[in-house]
């Protein structure tokens, strides 16, 4: 059963009671940073609280595993927009322990596609068109490896300004404790 009707009913009350007022901010990140993190449900409220972030402080880009599979995908585009159009001057990649992308079995995922009614011919056509399911559904051996991979793609991106530091961290999804994996020591340019 869909939760859409519950969401719509709550939203109407939320707006009518002006509960949104405590969240009003503008589109520019106040702390001039962008975070690439995982879509894990445990991080929705925990991550901002564990980093002492409030609404409007940073841009947050989420995807499975905080992993960049290609340098010109939508997550990297969002990071570049945060920098060039919205004033972010620092990038954080934050993975987490217990991530579902750890040792993800791409073959098992393809089997689940088929169980849900995706025809084998569709998978074959995609593979023949150059879309490798193993690459598309690639996970990592550890969250630390995933973070290092994404940090490397961002730092070496041809469109990333050289003066933007890119840091890598892993968060505990229960306690919020952070492990620093990779600190970029480049100085951040002074605000103008």
TrEMBL record:
It catalyses: hydrogencarbonate + H(+) = CO2 + H2O. The keyword Hydrolase does not apply. Gene3D superfamilies: Carbonic anhydrase (3.40.1050.10). Keywords: Metal-binding, Zinc. Its EC number is 4.2.1.1. GO terms for molecular function: carbonate dehydratase activity; zinc ion binding. It is an enzyme of class 4 (lyase). Binds 1 zinc ion per subunit. InterPro entries: Carbonic_anhydrase (IPR001765), Carbonic_anhydrase_sf (IPR036874). Zn(2+) binds at residues 38, 40, 96, 99. CDD domains: beta_CA_cladeD. Its cofactor is Zn(2+). Belongs to the beta-class carbonic anhydrase family. This is carbonic anhydrase.
């Amino acid at each position: 059963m869909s939760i859409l009707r519950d969401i719509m009913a709550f939203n109407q009350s939320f707006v009518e009671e002006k509960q949104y007022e405590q969240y009003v901010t503008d589109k520019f990140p106040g702390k001039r940073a962008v975070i690439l993190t995982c879509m894990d449900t445990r991080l929705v409220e925990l991550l901002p609280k564990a980093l002492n972030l409030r609404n409007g402080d940073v841009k947050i880009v989420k995807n499975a595993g905080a992993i960049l599979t290609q340098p010109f995908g939508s997550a990297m585009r969002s990071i570049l927009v945060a920098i060039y159009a919205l004033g972010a001057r620092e990038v954080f990649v934050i993975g987490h322990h217990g991530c579902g992308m750890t040792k993800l079995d791409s073959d098992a995922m393809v089997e689940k596609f088929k169980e849900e009614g995706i025809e084998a011919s569709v998978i074959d056509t995609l593979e023949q068109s150059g879309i490798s399911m193993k690459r598309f559904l690639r996970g990592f051996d550890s969250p630390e490896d995933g973070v290092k991979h994404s940090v490397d793609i961002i730092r070496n991106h041809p469109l990333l300004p050289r003066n933007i530091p890119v840091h890598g961290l892993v968060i505990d999804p229960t306690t919020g404790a952070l492990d620093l994996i990779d600190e970029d020591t480049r100085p951040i340019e002074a605000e103008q």
